[in-house]
Amino acid sequence: MRLARPKKNSLLICLVLILGTAALYAPLTLYPFILYDDEQYVTANPHVVSGISWANGIWAFTSGEAANWHPLTWLSHQLDCTLFGLNPAGHHAVSLLFHIANTLLIFFFLRRVTDAVGRSALVAALFAWHPLHVESVAWISERKDVLSTFFWMGTLIAYAGYARARSRQEPPETASNSPARRRQAGAFYALTLLLFALGLMSKPMVVTLPFVLLLLDFWPLNRIRVRAAEAGRLDSSPPVERLRFLILEKIPFFALAAAGSGVTYLVQAHAGALWQVPYMDRLSNAAIAYGRYVAKLFWPGDLAIVYSHPSHWPAAWALGATLMLAAWTVLCVRPWRQKPFLAVGWLWFLGTLVPTIGLVQVGAQSMADRYTYIPSIGFFIAVVWGAADLLARRPGARPLIVGLVVAALAGCALVTSIQISYWQDNVRLFRRAMTVSPDNYIAANCLGKAYEKNGDIGRALFFYRAAVESAPRFPQSQFNYALALLAFGQREEALKHLQAAAELEPNNSDIQYNLGIYFAQQSSWTNAAQCFRNAARIRPGFAGAEKQLEQILAAHPEAR
């Protein structure tokens, strides 16, 4: 009976997590693709739209499109197109299924390594229903988030199996001589390494996983303390030789992480995705972003798909955020013997955000909700286990803490429902972003595209102009503004912005093609031929550019 009840409780918890998450996110299946990245990842990508094939699979493993190398993510999108075509309902449903699976894996992992059913369930529920995670689930282009986290959690579960196989309760002198145990540990180790590699091929952000494995060795796996206890030193510092072994066994993981980091840096540098931001400004933004993430985890208000990056943060803000982070770190790490969960959870949160915190600035955003998808797990662990520890020390606080838990989950569900509603159409989504983050040229550009798609060229022109005035060096808004000007017959003004877009992004085949169309309409055949030639060179097989070039050269030989 003792075993049956916890098992029954776990099944009930899983059922609540599944049904609650599915009901909360169900409206997504009625929502469309969005105009920001979904075109590049799915709707306008011929290698994805055509579905799974041998040629598309090779492209997935060799392409650096979207400034990343994530072949499994491309294969996932290709499979969706094979199954559902361009019906967004199917794509949304798959992302939601991954989110539900990740929630269950978090619960299963924490319950297995801590035996704390209630706390594990609460962490999983916070992860499933927190508003900061709407972006990762609702944005089809962010399939890489939910997919990489699926392999991340699989890696942790496999690693827990490996650790258990190595430290099963047997005398140490006989444990090392057990062939069955060594085979079992070896199989779990190989599975852990394989799942980590699959995670890296889904999203490079998981490069921090080897460090998280070391944190788990400390707590809750207790691999360091177990060995210290065998030597009669449970209360002493972790033995150096044991720590050395734990680091050495992670060398293959660090090697994979280094390879993944190197490939990602080269791909992003080649794609021009690395923004040249002064180093001190990057440090300031990183410190402030950490503080903003913590604030939004506690009070998830003013969420947006994109947050504009200020050119410079006030020094006082950066200093204050740095001191606050240092204070939080000391408070969490100092009691590491009595409350190891605080140190592990907080360092998990800090460390897994490093690749996206802006020390290497990729893209124009100052922060992003989607970046918290994995780091928030550590944060929730620290908060939930910390609250449970407080409850154990002060039984009288139980009603208050239970009330706070219920209020937190209900509040998360309510705000998440509201946040999901913004994704029902592009205009609503990007208007929300401009309300939350003023002077947001990316949101203004996307809002212009949304109005243009709806046939409202006048409003589109207004927002394109706002985007260009806010950030003249953003090539996409220059390009879109030029096309909108052409629709209003302002050809001379349009040419200036087309040329500005071409100078800012010379390897964009669409810009070169439209510039060629402009010159052809002005009978400037030599310039038109050069632009079509550039477009065909940048994108081999660009049928439109090749056809236009062929027609011009046939009719105007001097254009050669």
Counted beta strands: 0
Rg from alpha-carbon coordinates: 26 Å
Strand residue percentage: under 5%
- Poorly predicted parts: 169-177, 226-237
What is the total number of structural domains? 1
Helix content: over 70%
Mean pLDDT equals: 87
Shape: globular
Q: From the helix content, strand content and strand pairing, which structural class follows? A: mainly alpha
Number of helices: 28
Largest sheet: none
Distance between the termini: 87 Å
Order of helices and strands: HHHHHHHHHHHHHHHHHHHHHHHHHHHH
Describe what you observe in this structure:
It is globular, with a radius of gyration of 26 Å. With 560 residues, the protein is an all-alpha fold. It has one domain. The protein contains 28 helices and no strands. Mean pLDDT is 87; it is low at 169-177 and 226-237. It has helices at residues 4-25, 38-43, 46-49, 54-62, 71-84, 88-114, 117-129, 134-138, 143-166, 172-175, 179-200, 209-218, 223-230, 240-248, 251-271, 279-298, 315-333, 340-352, 375-393, 398-421, 426-436, 441-453, 457-470, 475-487, 491-504, 509-521, 525-538, 543-555.
